[in-house]
Amino acid sequence: MSETPPPGYGPPGYQPPLRADEERLWALLCHLSYFVLGIIAPLIIMLTLGTRSPYVRHHAVEALNFHITAWLAAVVSGLLILAVIGIVLLPLVLVTGTVFAIVAAIQAYQGQLYRYPLSLRLVS
C-alpha cells in the first residue's frame, strides 16, 4: 500500500525546481569557484543542482570546461618555464582566466547564458 505525501509535497525523492534567484546565485558560484575550488565545485553543482535547473547546469558545464582548460594551460605554461617562454605565458594564463571567470560570473548573475571563449568542450 502506498502512502500519499502530505499536501504541498511531491513524491519521495522529488526535488522542486530552483527559484530564479537561487539559479543565478548557483550559476555565479560555479564561475567564481575558479578562485577557490577550481574543478570540484562546478562538478558537484552540475551533478546535484543541475538536475533541478537547466540554467544552473549550463553554467556549471561551462565553468567546468573552462576550469579544466585553464588548469591544463597553467600546467603547460608552468612546464614551459624551463624554456623561458613560460615566464610570460603563466601570468598571461592566470590573468586571462581571472578576467573570463569574472565576466562569466557577472553574466550569470544577470540571468544571461555565457559561453567561454578559448575553452575545450570536454563535458557536455
State which percent range the strand residues make up.
under 5%
Report the end-to-end length measured between terminal Cα atoms: 41 Å
Strand runs, count: 0
Q: Compute the gyration radius: what is it?
A: 18 Å
Give the SSE string: HHHH
Helix content: 55-70%
Outline: elongated
Average pLDDT confidence is 91
Query: How many domains is the backbone divided into?
Result: 1
The structure class reads mainly alpha
**How would you characterize the largest beta sheet?**
none
Key structural traits:
124 residues; mainly alpha; 4 helices
Task: Set out the fold topology.
Elements (H helix, E strand, L loop, with lengths): L19 H13 L7 H9 L5 H26 L6 H24 L15
Description:
- Helix content is 58%, strand content 0%.
- It is an all-alpha fold and 124 residues long.
- The protein has one domain.
- Helix 3 (54-79) packs antiparallel against helix 4 (86-109).
- The chain is elongated and about 70 Å long.
- The mean pLDDT is 91.
Structure summary:
Helix content is 58%, strand content 0%. With 124 residues, the chain is mostly helical. The chain has one domain.
